[in-house]
């Protein structure tokens, strides 16, 4: 915690950069997990699931 | 009412004090520091790490880190939401998929015989595609630009010399010219008699400009994409 505070949170510049960098990974994580949840709820209904029957 | 009373009291006291000062002539020091007051003991409310005032505050950074972490997590969510909103607003300005699909036309060139002019509908306007013969190409290339109302060489107007692609709207008042008609073997506008040559350039009649050439390309030998 101390190291994080002194290296990132103490200066506004590094704090802002840290926020933006983590927003990038946060977005990626949210997108991937929400897609996974959507796919698991709609299992068997999407084209990629039934594609095999028609090819 | 209360206020009036207390004001009167203060004024009276101040007057009495200044009177007494004037009469005695001695300076009276008024101490306002209240050093006799006891500082309350807040030890019961303090964290263990800051109870001893002589010790360095060891836990401050850790506690600040926690607060900033919470604020930062909120900011990360805010950045994510703001990015999504900006994305949606900017995305709403770009053309939708159906518009983009209508914006281009792909033409199979093997269906158009040499010397023929074919009309297609593109973005709500007629599109003339002319498969020119070598003789026509030669004629258009040899026209000196000094003779032209809207001087453009043939090479400026075509990508491949065999294929002329123009928008079939007369530059005069917007009629649709007739292909393979007129004095110059190109297009002729029946409305007011503008003659265009086989490069779509205005040669005679009231029209001020050459027929418009849309951006087009040839992805392969037998395909033309306009748009």
From TrEMBL, chain A:
Transmembrane segments: none annotated. One of its GO terms (biological process) is mitochondrial electron transport, ubiquinol to cytochrome c. It is a single-pass membrane protein. The keyword Hydrolase does not apply. It is found in: Mitochondrion inner membrane. It holds the Pfam family UCR_UQCRX_QCR9. It comes from the Eukaryota. One of its GO terms (cellular component) is mitochondrial inner membrane. Keywords: Electron transport, Membrane, Mitochondrion, Mitochondrion inner membrane, Respiratory chain, Transmembrane, Transmembrane helix, Transport. Component of the ubiquinol-cytochrome c oxidoreductase, a multisubunit transmembrane complex that is part of the mitochondrial electron transport chain which drives oxidative phosphorylation. The complex plays an important role in the uptake of multiple carbon sources present in different host niches. Component of the ubiquinol-cytochrome c oxidoreductase (cytochrome b-c1 complex, complex III, CIII), a multisubunit enzyme composed of 3 respiratory subunits cytochrome b, cytochrome c1 and Rieske protein, 2 core protein subunits, and additional low-molecular weight protein subunits. PANTHER family: CYTOCHROME B-C1 COMPLEX SUBUNIT 9, UBIQUINOL-CYTOCHROME C REDUCTASE COMPLEX, SUBUNIT X. Belongs to the UQCR10/QCR9 family. This is Complex III subunit 9.
Automatic annotation (TrEMBL), chain B:
Its main location: membrane. GO terms for cellular component: mitochondrial inner membrane. It is found in: Membrane; Mitochondrion inner membrane. SUPFAM superfamilies: ISP domain, ISP transmembrane anchor. Residues 130-225 form the Rieske domain. Its cofactor is [2Fe-2S] cluster. CDD domains: Rieske_cytochrome_bc1. Binds 1 [2Fe-2S] cluster per subunit. It is a single-pass membrane protein. It comes from the Eukaryota. Keywords: 2Fe-2S, Disulfide bond, Electron transport, Iron, Iron-sulfur, Membrane, Metal-binding, Mitochondrion, Oxidoreductase, Respiratory chain, Transmembrane, Transmembrane helix, Transport. InterPro entries: bc1_Rieske_TM_sf, Rieske_2Fe-2S, Rieske_2Fe-2S_sf, Rieske_Fe-S_prot, Rieske_Fe-S_prot_C, Rieske_TM, Ubiquinol_cyt_c_Rdtase_Fe-S-su. PROSITE patterns: RIESKE. Its EC number is 7.1.1.8. GO terms for molecular function: 2 iron, 2 sulfur cluster binding; metal ion binding; oxidoreductase activity; quinol-cytochrome-c reductase activity. It catalyses: a quinol + 2 Fe(III)-[cytochrome c](out) = a quinone + 2 Fe(II)-[cytochrome c](out) + 2 H(+)(out). Belongs to the Rieske iron-sulfur protein family. The Rieske protein is a high potential 2Fe-2S protein. This is Cytochrome b-c1 complex subunit Rieske, mitochondrial. It comes from Drosophila mojavensis (Fruit fly).
């Amino acid at each position: 915690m101390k190291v994080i505070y002194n290296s990132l949170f103490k200066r506004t510049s590094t704090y802002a950069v840290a926020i933006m960098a983590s927003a990038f990974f946060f977005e990626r994580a949210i997108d991937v997990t929400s897609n996974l949840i959507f796919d698991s709820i709609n299992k068997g209904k999407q084209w990629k699931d039934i594609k095999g029957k028609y090819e | 009412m209360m206020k009036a009373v207390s004001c009167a009291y203060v004024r009276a006291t101040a007057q009495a004090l200044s009177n007494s000062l004037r009469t005695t002539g001695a300076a009276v020091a008024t101490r306002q520091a209240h050093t006799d007051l006891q500082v309350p003991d807040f030890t019961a409310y303090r964290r263990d790490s800051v109870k001893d005032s002589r010790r360095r505050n060891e836990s401050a950074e850790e506690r600040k880190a926690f607060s900033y972490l919470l604020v930062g997590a909120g900011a990360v969510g805010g950045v994510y939401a703001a990015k999504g909103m900006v994305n949606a607003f900017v995305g709403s300005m770009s053309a939708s998929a159906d518009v983009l699909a209508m914006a281009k036309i792909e033409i199979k060139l093997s269906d158009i015989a040499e010397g023929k002019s074919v009309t297609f509908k593109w973005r709500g306007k007629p599109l003339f595609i002319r498969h020119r013969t070598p003789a026509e190409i030669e004629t258009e290339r040899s026209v000196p630009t000094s003779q032209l109302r809207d001087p453009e060489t043939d090479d400026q107007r075509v990508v491949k010399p065999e294929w002329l692609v123009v928008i079939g709207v007369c530059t005069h008042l917007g009629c649709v010219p007739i292909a393979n008609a007129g004095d110059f073997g190109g297009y002729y506008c029946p409305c007011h008699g503008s003659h265009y040559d086989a490069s779509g350039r205005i040669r005679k009649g009231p029209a001020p400009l050459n027929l418009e050439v849309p951006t087009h390309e040839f992805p392969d030998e037998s395909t033309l994409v306009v748009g």
